[in-house]
Amino acid sequence: MASLTSSSQASFLSRPSSNRSSPPLPPTDHHVSLSPRDLPSFPALRASFTRSSPTLRRRLLLPISAAATDVSLVDKSVNTIRFLAIDAVEKAKSGHPGLPMGCAPMGHILFDEVMQYNPKNPYWFNRDRFILSAGHGCMLQYALLHLAGYDSVREDDLKNFRQWGSRTPGHPENFETPGVEVTTGPLGQGIANAVGLALAEKHLAARFNKPGNEIVDHYTYAILGDGCQMEGIANEACSLAGHWGLGKLIAFYDDNHISIDGDTEIAFTENVETRFQGLGWHVIWVKNGNTGYDEIRAAIKEAKAVKDKPTLIKITTTIGYGSPNKANSYSVHGSALGEKEVDATRKNLGWPYGPFHVPEDVKSHWSRHIPKGAALETEWNAKFADYEKKYPQEAAELKSLITVNLPTGWEKSLPTYTPESPADATRNLSQQCLNALAKVLPGFLGGSADLASSNMTLLKMFGDFQKNAPEERNLRFGVREHSMGAICNGITCHSPGLIPYCATFFVFTDYMRAAIRLSALSQAGVIYVMTHDSIGLGEDGPTHQPIEHVASFRAMPNILMLRPADGTETAGAYKVAVENRKRPSILALSRQKLPHLPGTSVEGVEKGGYVISDNSTGNKPDVILMGTGSELEIAAKAGEKLREEGRAVRVVSLVSWELFDEQSEEYKESVLPSEVSARVSIEAGSTFGWEKMVGSKGKAIGVDSFGASAPADVLYKKFGLTVDAVVAAAKDLC
C-alpha cells in the first residue's frame, strides 16, 4: 500500500563542579578513530591497528550496537556534530555554538541509537518526534539531520546557515526545513509544543490501537535549557503533562548553568528536580553529560520503562565543551568562537579535519539510517494494511487524520439561521457550531483555560481528556492560557487532520500572544475561540474589556481575525477556520445577545467583506456604513434611518480584513467603490487601522481609551457607539 504521510507537518549548590569547572583535558587516543585512513597524525596508533588481527580489526569497526570498543567512533561522531556546528556558526559569524557543543552526546545517542524515523520521508506518520525547545542551538539539530541523511540539510545548507533563502535559518522553522517538527526559538515554546505532540500521540493511540495492533506508537523527545526552565510557559505545560500522564514524553534538560548574562546562580537557583517531581514527572539525573554515554543510554532506557508519567532527564553538561578558553562561560552561548578559538578547539579535541568535514567512517556509520528508516516505514505500512483489513472504519478515520482529508459535505453540519431566529450571543452560537463540527470532524478537539462554561466551548457528546481517558476530546487546560496555545500548536503539527481549538476571554490573548504568533509563523491552523470581545461584556470593567486587540491581530501576518455579527456569520467563520489548515483563525465573539441580521451570509464571510444591504444604483451610494461583530447591527439600523430620509446607503460587513484583502480588485471595488469617499465605520474597539477602509475623508467610530465598569447598554451610550452617532457622522460627510 502507499505510505501514509502527513501533508504539512537541583539547586546550583547541589551541582557537582568536577564536570565543568575547567576546560576539558587535552585529548588522548580515546578521541581518535580506529580507521587507519583517518589517523594521519598518530603513526604509532595506526601501526598498532595495522598489526592487529583481521578479526580484531573487523570487530573494532562494527556498528555501535555490536562492539564494546566502538566508543571511539561515538566520540568521533559526537565531535563531528560539534564541529559542524562550530564551522557553520563561524562561517556565518553569527549563531550559538555553545549548546551544540555541550549537547552533542545526547543528540548523537537520540538520533543514532534511539529514535525511529525515515530520513527520506520526514513526514512518515509513526516517526518519533524531536523538539529542540532551546531553538537557538539549532545547529545541533541541523548537524543531526545532515548526518542522518535528510535531503533538507545538505552540506551546502550547513554552509549557508542563517543566510537569505537558506534551509538552515537562525532558529528551527518547520515550514523551511523538513525534519523540523515545530518552530522554536522563543524559550519555553518548544517544550509546550512537545506536550501537544505527546498529547496527540496518546489521544490517537487510545482511539485507534487494538490489542495486538498498536498502530500509533511513537515517542516525543525534547531538549530544553535553563532559559526554557525559567519561562513560565514551560512550567504551565509541564504541569499539564504530569497531570495527563504523558508517558511517551521524554525531555532532556541541558543543565549547563549558563545563560546570556552569566552563571544562572545570579537568578535561577531553584531545585528543578524537586519541582518536576511535584509536577508529576519521573526525574533522572545524568551527572556526566559530556562523556557519560552509558549513563545517557541507561537514563533513556529507564525513562521508556516508565509508562504512566513523562520523564525529565537532567543532563549536566559543559556549554561549549572542548573550547579551551570559552567553555563553561556565557561568551560561548551566542556568538562565534572566533578563528583562534576554533583552531584551539580543534587541537584540544584532536580534530585534524577542515571545516564541514565528515570523516568517512562517521559518514558510513550514519548512512545506515536511510535503509533502516525505509525499512521501518515499510514495516509500519504492512502493519497498517493488516490493521485496515481488520478494522476498516477505524483505518479510514485514522487515514483522514494523517492526510487531512475532510469528510465530504462536512460544512453542511453547521447550523443555519434566519432573521426570525431568536437573538443570542455569538459565544452561544459558537457552541452550537463547535458541537455540530465535532460530530463530523474526527480530528476536532479542544478546550478552554478554565472558562468552558463562559466561553461555551464544551463538546457535549464527549468527556474530558484525562490520564485514564485519553480518547476523549474536551481538553481542560486550567488557567494556563500561554501553554494552551502552544500545546494546540503541537497538536496541529502532529497530524494535519487534527483540528484543535482553544478558548479564553479575548483580553487574555495578552497572556498567550507569543503562542498565537508562533501559530501564524508555523502555519499551524489552530482555532482561537475568544469570547467577551469588547466593552459589551459590561460590568467586569476595563481589566477584562479588550480595546486594541482586534487591531493588533489584524497587524499580525498569516492569521485570520474574524468578528462575526450573528449566527450566520459565526457559522461562516467556522467554515473558514476549518478550511484554513495552514493559518490560524481568531473568532472574537460577544457576551451580549445579538439579532440575526438580514443579508448576512456564509459566502460573504468567505470573502471577508460584503454588502448586507444597499438601496443605491450604479455602485454609487451616497454613503457607506461599515461594521463588524455587535456593531454591524448598529450600522444596519443607521442605514435604515438614513434611507428613511432619502439617502442611498450601503451597509458593509467587514468580518475579516485579511480575507477581504485577498479578493480581486474588481470585487473590492464593487463593495467599496473608490469614488465614494463618504464612509463611516463603527467597531467597539480601537479605531487604529480603520483609515485603510474609511479613507482620509471618512469617519471611524470606536473606543480609543480603556473601558469602564457598567452595564453594556450604558457603556455603548457613554462611548458613543450608537445609531445616532453613526447617522450624525454620515450626514457630516454627505
Automatic annotation (TrEMBL):
GO terms for cellular component: chloroplast stroma; cytosol. The record marks 96, 333 as: Important for catalytic activity. The active site is at 481 (proton donor). Its cofactor is Mg(2+); Co(2+); thiamine diphosphate. Keywords: Magnesium, Metal-binding, Thiamine pyrophosphate, Transferase. Mg(2+) binds at residues 226, 256, 258. One of its GO terms (molecular function) is transketolase activity. Residues 424-596 form the Transketolase-like pyrimidine-binding domain. PROSITE patterns: TRANSKETOLASE_1, TRANSKETOLASE_2. Its EC number is 2.2.1.1. InterPro entries: Transketolase-like_C_2 (IPR055152), Transketolase-like_Pyr-bd (IPR005475), Transketolase_bac-like (IPR005478), Transketolase_BS (IPR020826), Transketolase_CS (IPR049557), Transketolase_fam (IPR033247), Transketolase_N (IPR005474). Thiamine diphosphate binds at residues 136, 185-187, 227, 256, 333, 508. It catalyses: D-sedoheptulose 7-phosphate + D-glyceraldehyde 3-phosphate = aldehydo-D-ribose 5-phosphate + D-xylulose 5-phosphate. Binds 1 Mg(2+) ion per subunit. Can also utilize other divalent metal cations, such as Ca(2+), Mn(2+) and Co(2+). Residues 1-37 are annotated as: Disordered. Residues 1-22 have a biased composition (Low complexity). Substrate binds at residues 96, 333, 427, 454, 532, 540, 544, 591. One of its GO terms (biological process) is pentose-phosphate shunt. Homodimer. Belongs to the transketolase family. Catalyzes the reversible transfer of a two-carbon ketol group from fructose-6-phosphate or sedoheptulose-7-phosphate to glyceraldehyde-3-phosphate to yield xylulose-5-phosphate and erythrose-4-phosphate or ribose-5-phosphate, respectively. Could act as a stress sensor involved in adaptation process. This is transketolase. The lineage of its organism: Eukaryota, Viridiplantae, Streptophyta, Embryophyta, Tracheophyta.
